[in-house]
Amino acid sequence: MEVNPPKQEHLLALKVMRLTKPTLFTNIPVTCEEKDLPGDLFNQLMKDDPSTVNGAEILMLGEMLTLPQNFGNIFLGETFSSYISVHNDSNQVVKDILVKADLQTSSQRLNLSASNAAVAELKPDCCIDDVIHHEVKEIGTHILVLKPLDVKTKFYNAETDEVFLEAQIQNITTSPMFMEKVSLEPSMMYNVTELNSVNQAGECISTFGSRGYLQPMDTRQYLYCLKPKKEFAEKAGIIKGVTVIGKLDIVWKTNLGERGRLQTSQLQRMAPGYGDVRLSLEAIPDTVNLEEPFHITCKITNCSSERTMDLVLEMCDTSSVHWCGISGRQLGKLHPSSSLCLALTLLSSVQGLQSVSGLRLTDTFLKRTYEYDDIAQVCVVSAAVEVEA
To answer: What residues does the Trafficking protein particle complex subunit 13 middle domain cover (predicted)?
Structure first.
């Protein structure tokens, strides 16, 4: 009896496989102190384990490689690589074969094929191979795309025009990351200074240590100081409304050097409102002597862009800090978006950390008074007394 083989529906077979590097084997160390009942048993077992690193057995990271067991995950900012193979399973020659690979995202369709030329013929048991690459830049219909980092930002407005940005970056993947670069690209209005290193013997040392690894679910805080450029800082209107700070650029590596990169959208902060008149301190000593005069420099800015002010300065003493000079003096006219600096003298009758308060500015045109308290703090100490022998 002769049985006919089932009819083959397709002459070609298509296989799609992801190209990934092997991962380092990880194990969970089990150890104890020598005074415990097992003694040195657990430590010896870890030393004999071929998967551990000699001299660093208690580290989870081993020196063996593990091949991927599934298709795995792809994270935003990483490059997705895939291997496509079209195999001729029939005993016939197949002609004019065109292999085309498209990736549909939530916003566009991308052509990932390396070549758009058709293959003239494909003989039996032969195949057409192609490798495609795509840098993942958006989250949407990519069912394999996950978010690798959780980025949170906080803004702190200093008494001056400086702005401090704290960026909290958390690794929400299941493997360690090497943080290659975390930088802030400021907007055109600001200059930025990174505060993530210290100067030791003329060399900048990272505050996070010599190794920039970020373990799974760990969080690291990066701090930046932004200061308006001179041409913008001189314009009082810049301190009002929403201002664009810049964007974070984050580059990391995972496993065996796979590189990922993320750029945040433009970060914006709501600048504090100072009203019509702003008073800021340009200079003040940190420490002063008890009952000895000390000097401060104040800057008064007319934040209005339309009207001129005629200002009068009044100085009100507190229980611990006393002003030296004439109260109620005329400062003259202050034109829109302009500033003036004042040198003032005080003395303190009480030791400790004392607050500078009691300045009053009155606009004689509108009969409006602006009060300024707790504008700064100084440490008051007792003057040193020399004792003759």
So the answer is: 149-272
